[in-house]
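pasting for the record
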Amino acid sequence: MRFINQLIHTLAEQPSGIQIGYNFTQTSVIDVGLSIAATDFLKTDFDYFFSLDYDIIFNPHGDPAYPPGYEIKRLVDSCKETGGMVGGPYLKRGKEDQLCVVPLKEGNVLIGPGGGITEVRYLPTGCTMISREILQKLADRMELVRYEEGTWIYPFFMPMIQKDHDGTPMYLTLDFAFSQRVRDAGFKIFLDTRIILGHMGSKMYAVQRR
């Protein structure tokens, strides 16, 4: 219920002139659900596909500097600026200092108003904005497949095996596999660290605003 209330409140606060749709796909197979939603997205005239997990919380500290809808607008603007896929940062559940992201290089990341846009290797899909251009190019590179009777999808989020830089075969889960496909298609992937998100578990994990 927290997720639904947050989503309704956020959608209601979007500026006039912005059209937003939603897709609540009914399946327990997450990569299939995301692939169905992204395939359906390409049948619309929307410009951006936004993936949001149920356990991600906007503005976890209730900071008035972050009005409702800030995260969505920030991610769309960053997509326009970079031409790539952009996600918001959040901590791994059970970890107080580890982000759910695979960086391109080691180093400290500043989260909050002093942050910015940094390129990363892989992003999770918990709070991610993807342009139509990216999904269309991926669709052009893959085959439409039947998942079940009457349901045809582009397997955008299907897990995959990818060799690491040293040749070691790695199992990439659905979100990192999608990131790899995005990179293979010639796009870059970014983290917008001006956004602060909460990640619900036994408690809420969130970076403190600095």
